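Structure ticket #2291
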Amino acid sequence: MKRRSVFLFFLLPFLGVLVFFALSSVLSQADLKKRTGSLVRDQLAATSGILGATAAHFLDEGRSPEEALEAILSEEDLYFVALLDERKTVLAWNSRFEGYLPISLREAREDEPGIIDSPAGKIFSELATVSRRDGSRYYLYLGYALTGMEEMIALSRRTSFLLSGLFLLAGAAFFRAMFVLQSRYVAKAREAEAERLEKERFREISAFTSGVAHEIKNPLNSLSLLLELLQGTVHSGVKDEVALGKAELQKISRIIDSFSGSLKPLRPVKETASLREIVTAAHDALLREASKPEVEWRFSESRPVFLKADRELMIQCFLNLLRNAYEATDRGIVAVEAEIRRKRITVRVWDTGRGIETDRLPLVFDPFFTTKEKGMGVGLYLARKIIEAHGGRIGVESPPSQGTTFTIQLPGGSHE
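Resolution: structure written out below.
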């Protein structure tokens, strides 16, 4: 799945759900505010009716407006209360905020609750009629603080923001996880496709090489037998040339065998082997081919490293790597370093030689790729093939003017 498809498939639905959640939250808060306001109005209307009847009773008993007001001010949620005469003149009042009486006679409407701004926030107001037994009429003006409702709405808003934030974080984490998984899937799919193409190419090369080897080796064998017969019959002055021809035929035969062998499937016969012994055997074989006294040789391991491997194949692997390092180093160091971490062996084969050009670095493990005049291009390919046959991996780094480092990782290492 392409990244654009992932964006459309995951991110857009997530954003849609987030917008829906935000709209639902806003609408739910508006609905909560509306319902709460309706409940407050109903409660204030009922309270004004009860307190109005109480005030009328005290006034009928001959008490002063102040005494009647004092008797009804026990209601905890009342922010203010005022007793007005028939002309809506204030006879007595009391407020929880000292010196503040939020009364606007122009806004006060009988039996029509309103909302007033005050130091305590929004206040519902109610102007209720109080009728005495003698027929005279008063008004009771009440204010009901909406602090509880506003706190509840603020809490709901904070909760909504918190849930939105958590939802956003969870969605971001989910999207990132899906993106990472998708990226890994794409990478694995590309690796699998590259491996499939590589195997298909190698099968074609193997089939071609096998056919060519078969067609060439038969005439070579015949020529070799012919030269062997000639060597015993020709004049002594020609024997050296015949021997040289025979050696060249054998060289051609070894090259063909090398090509054919590098493309055959490997079936390692594993046994416990010392890494030091394997590397030493490879190094000794290399020195028998050609010695370079001007190149310093180093081998190091924190503790003796043992691995389960096919000893002969691993010797061939390190022989190819060391040959490559020595050929690239005219004067300097060739070294092998080994360590074990979490039961995995890491081996670095490095040199201080010429290095590998950046554009050629990805091709060094390809079969038949070489930059050497006499190279066949199978050494590093065979080294990688041997490492992978043992369940490991090999990589290469070659910073400009800093030599080359081959890093091998193999499973199942131990110190004994």
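Closing remark: The chain has a mean pLDDT of 76.
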